[in-house]
Each structure stands twice: as structure tokens, then as C-alpha cells.
Amino acid sequence: AIADGIGALGAWATAGLGDGPLKGLLLEGLFGGLGTVLGFLPQILVLFLFILVLEESGYLPRAAFLLDHAMVAVGLTG
Hints:
- This protein has one domain.
- Helix 1 (about 1-15) runs antiparallel to helix 2.
- It is elongated and about 65 Å long.
- It is mainly α.
- It has three helices and no strands.
- Keywords: Membrane, Transmembrane, Transmembrane helix.
């Protein structure tokens, strides 16, 4: 759905612009990059939701304590 919306926006911009460097910049640069970022946005939001749940539940400090010994064993202290 997001990619279709960006594609429709690109088609609208193609019809309104003539050939030239501005057309290439807008279509390939701006709309292409924006479409990629918006395509990954749902996955990023779900990831942040799960991290928020782990933080609010208090599990992250416990997980850090449980993994501390294993990390020291491979030289990752801190």
C-alpha cells in the first residue's frame, strides 16, 4: 500500500515535470528514498513497541544481568 502510494505520487510528478535533471532528482532520489524509508517504517515501529514493552516490564536489566557472564567470557565487558 505504501509503495503503491509512492508510485502514484511519482506518476503524478512525472506527468507534471518535463525531462531534465529535476525530474530525475525528484523521482529517483526523493520519491525512491522516501518510499524505502516508509516501507520499513512498520517493522521499525513494531520493534520499538516490543522494546518499550521489555523496558516497562523491567525485563531488560534482568536480561543484562543474565548475559553479563557470557559477555565477559568473550571479552565484551562494560
